[in-house]
Specification:
By secondary structure, the chain is an all-alpha fold. About 70% of the residues lie in helices and about 0% in strands.
Length: about 220
């Protein structure tokens, strides 16, 4: 789930404002901290490729300026662009590099966000177990920040992985943990999504009565 796209207290726009100087036009060699060039298996449109090139250029500028926070933000945005265009492998590479940087900041919100981005990319690549590890590592960080909404979303992400792994009991467990947090956060859309997902679990168990009950609850939230 990539709605949690902004690292803690860091503005992408402000991170880039200070970098509009001559560095941008220089021809630099590949920085070892920058994700590798896009793999040929994933074709990006010219517009998206232009955005990727811009972000990679800005990353080089941030490295030159020794601004690790800006580097983390740019890597996060680069990962988001790759992920949004079905390039989970390059997304994972960018998100992992962002995670390595934000771990140095001692900022739970930033680290939890990066871990969830890594988890989403791993799951998109079919790597369910390491995705679960990343999401579970993020949970205590969300709790430390008191962010009920994002904690609930992460529990929901874990539930969906278990549902994909055909483990309905674990999926149900994590969905039920998620629901009261969404209620506490006042997130009605989140509540409806969880209720619908619980309904799907009962539907696959051929318990149509319970499934219908949860589907109706989802519709009335």
């Amino acid at each position: 789930m990539l709605s949690r796209r902004v690292l803690a207290a860091i503005s992408f726009a402000s991170a880039l404002v200070s970098f509009s100087f001559a560095f941008a036009s220089q021809d630099k060699s590949q920085d070892p901290n920058l994700p590798d060039s896009p793999r040929p298996a994933v074709r990006l449109t010219p517009e998206v490729q232009s955005r990727v090139t811009e972000l990679r250029r800005n990353f080089e500028i941030a490295v030159e300026a020794k601004d690790s926070r800006a580097q983390a933000v740019i890597l996060s945005h680069l990962g988001a662009v790759y992920y949004a265009h079905a390039d989970a492998a390059d997304a994972l590479q960018a998100f992992n590099k962002a995670l390595t940087i934000v771990r140095k900041f001692n900022q739970p919100l930033a680290e939890a966000t990066a871990l969830c981005d890594v988890g989403a990319s791993l799951f998109a690549l079919g790597r369910a177990e390491p995705a679960l590890d990343a999401y579970k590592e993020a949970l205590p960080l969300w709790r430390a920040t008191g962010n009920k909404d994002h904690e609930a979303a992460t529990l929901g992400d874990i539930a969906e992985i278990f549902r994909a792994l055909h483990d309905p009991d674990e999926a149900l467990h994590f969905n039920r943990e998620s629901l009261p947090l969404y209620i506490e956060a006042g997130n009605r859309a989140g509540q409806a999504a969880v209720l619908n997902n619980i309904g799907l679990i009962f539907f696959t168990r051929h318990d149509r009565k319970k499934a219908l009950d949860y589907f109706n609850q989802a519709m009335t939230v």
